[in-house]
């Protein structure tokens, strides 16, 4: 395929580096092992900067110069209508070529989903992927019955040009409106804009590191980038979905009045309505949130919008997740604690780490390796030094015997061997190349970028043989080292040089990446993380080296305004160019699709392929995959972590809004590198963070090469803090697992924002320094260095409608007089509350989830102000995609009686019931189990704490019958 657009080739075809490489370095003798390794010059990763048009004072405003469209030829369909949109006057060709005829389709697809699509009327096989996501790549939103009844109304106008509006019929509230603005649709530029209420509450639009409520002065850029967990820029994933929540007060006439002020106090007179909008466009784009509007600007694709009426957040989320794909169910063991670091050097060291956790009584479920396990950073080959094939067998066996697991990193790029060095064989590449699995240049030659092992090629998920080749390699490697899950990294897809930089340089292989690895001699800049002891010179030096070389991965391009490329993309992307830190837009897929058109989908492709691989290796078992780059729907395949964060307090703070956003995106299995990835952590930060992450679904400690060790056992205070938080987590495992069952089957969320659980309280709209785990657990972490208390909100207390119990002392928290209360939280203590009205099935803490799962049950009933509570429990074998047997139990407490309703799906639970604990009991009468009095010796009542504990049950917990307890 040719290069239809000049700037595509400008960005993609830079060969500056090739010239540099050839001029500076004579090719080393291919067989000489003493020749110094060639290091790519840093210039290899620099491309000319482009100025995004939102930052370009001279950028032409498409709204001013473009003509818009006019609708005609309206045809009713079974579930909506279609129309033609014709360019209304002369083309503006502002950032591309205007498309003169578009097709509009409006379809009421389900009661909870309205679809509005605008695509070019004339597309061909050759240009389809410029506009439409390749069919089959993502889950296709299925369409329900025709003539569905919806609370959404679509209306449109041709004056002054075509614009449309989506209204909530029941409230006449306009949710989205392009009326009065122009639709701009060019081959490389699309713009449309909707008004929004003042002070709107918009959430989602990720992946980003940003406050939870996005604010009205923020541009979200979409272009998957290996850019660390950096605040406010485009990072690893693309989820162009938002939730908007509007708060109303009810007037005397019963009409709702929109609240547009941030100054609100919680009271029961407020109500809120939420809706969702998903833009199914995988192209690079900027979404501009401004004072009273939202503007979409994409460099391709189409207008492909899905509106979800809600009207509650859970309903919006369910509608969205049943559109893009429900989250994968995870295996029970994945909820245990995971330990990783870049810098573990051998199987023996991994085993030491495991044994050290046991020695200090710290639960550990899974040990992970970063790229250290690989021979020369090449996928699927163990480094014989430290990670030899033979020893891996015993290592894995001992892990599994102990109920533990192993997950290695797997990189996305594949090393391409030196063609003139027969010793440089890499069969993984040869087999993939034979299967036609790799991306090419437009001329058909292999596209050769660079990642850790040197020059690399990149799998092409649109090529027919690629998935099979990938699975074969995963299977082959699993036969050598029996890993339990896969950690997919660098999948943005990252490349450390601009363009196909290795094409003419393969005889230099293996080359060194164009920066020093952490710990390698670099140019140390002494920057200390907060709280880091400057007296520890060795640690300081290693941290600085780590930091210096880490930042150099992403050179900041100094630009002067004269050197910008103007008239090109609209995007506010990191480093100013699409080709930096990622493969270039002209990398070509087997069917001719350019990377430009599907860049944001690469990460989703490898997750799907890896899911199939693990399904082959472990038939019938839920694959466990941790993926870095994700797209809408990736949660059906994988878990996700927050990427390369820093060992500092802001990174810990941002982990909460990151997780809440991932809840909206359907990736509930989320967590961040606990204690921080880059730079040295310190005792206090790690202490607080190990406690915070214990309440995130995915719980892993991980750090960078060269930084100080940060396993929990490195500091005695962190040992204690970790054990105390982990004890709660492990007791709650049945609850967390049940939450995942609801997420997987119904699209419920696991980690929740306060705004979602307390929709009548506008003062919680921005709350992202505390969160709920499911409906019942409230966590108020300390996020500030040196603090011994934390300001937190116990929602609902002002009106007295909620009761909160302190997890640690089982008592009701006294009602504070203000919304914000100061909660004592010395180092090592994380405030955790149980919401009155909850029934929590608990098991005992253990060193592994296997131990915990084989322990007796407790049931905790936390009564609300009316003396009621409910809850539920889902159980199965913990790993099967389609379990043969399951169990679902519901608990309902009211009028001093707890009833359990057990629906057997054949699951036989062997573990006995130990205690039933009831919080909030004022007084007791005769305690009866199934109508029979319970002997006094089995009853404990603390009238001061209002706590009743009943024990002595002679049943296995869920033996088959529903049962009741009266007090
Ligand atoms: C796509 O290609 C076809 C055939 O080459 C052409 O007729 C059509 O105008 C193109 N469509 C767009 C929107 O560029
Ligand atoms: C919007 O953000 C920009 C950059 O972050 C800042 O300079 C500007 O002052 C902000 N505008 C308003 C109205 O807050
Ligand atoms: C709620 O509304 C009622 C009637 O409109 C009013 O009397 C009352 O003061 C309001 N409550 C609060 C807490 O604002
Ligand atoms: C295990 O713990 C001991 C004692 O704290 C420590 O000296 C050693 O470095 C640890 N080993 C590993 C691999 O973490």
From TrEMBL:
<dbReference type="InterPro" id="IPR000322">
    <property type="entry name" value="Glyco_hydro_31_TIM"/>
</dbReference>
<feature type="domain" description="Glycosyl hydrolase family 31 C-terminal">
    <location>
        <begin position="747"/>
        <end position="840"/>
    </location>
</feature>
<dbReference type="InterPro" id="IPR017853">
    <property type="entry name" value="GH"/>
</dbReference>
<keyword id="KW-0326">Glycosidase</keyword>
<dbReference type="GO" id="GO:0004558">
    <property type="term" value="F:alpha-1,4-glucosidase activity"/>
</dbReference>
<keyword id="KW-0325">Glycoprotein</keyword>
<keyword id="KW-0732">Signal</keyword>
<feature type="domain" description="Glycoside hydrolase family 31 TIM barrel">
    <location>
        <begin position="327"/>
        <end position="739"/>
    </location>
</feature>
<keyword id="KW-0378">Hydrolase</keyword>
<dbReference type="Pfam" id="PF21365">
    <property type="entry name" value="Glyco_hydro_31_3rd"/>
</dbReference>
<dbReference type="GO" id="GO:0030246">
    <property type="term" value="F:carbohydrate binding"/>
</dbReference>
<dbReference type="InterPro" id="IPR011013">
    <property type="entry name" value="Gal_mutarotase_sf_dom"/>
</dbReference>
<feature type="signal peptide">
    <location>
        <begin position="1"/>
        <end position="23"/>
    </location>
</feature>
<protein>
    <recommendedName>
        <fullName>alpha-glucosidase</fullName>
        <ecNumber>3.2.1.20</ecNumber>
    </recommendedName>
</protein>
<dbReference type="InterPro" id="IPR030459">
    <property type="entry name" value="Glyco_hydro_31_CS"/>
</dbReference>
<dbReference type="InterPro" id="IPR013780">
    <property type="entry name" value="Glyco_hydro_b"/>
</dbReference>
<dbReference type="Pfam" id="PF01055">
    <property type="entry name" value="Glyco_hydro_31_2nd"/>
</dbReference>
<dbReference type="GO" id="GO:0005975">
    <property type="term" value="P:carbohydrate metabolic process"/>
</dbReference>
<dbReference type="InterPro" id="IPR048395">
    <property type="entry name" value="Glyco_hydro_31_C"/>
</dbReference>
<comment type="similarity">
    <text>Belongs to the glycosyl hydrolase 31 family.</text>
</comment>
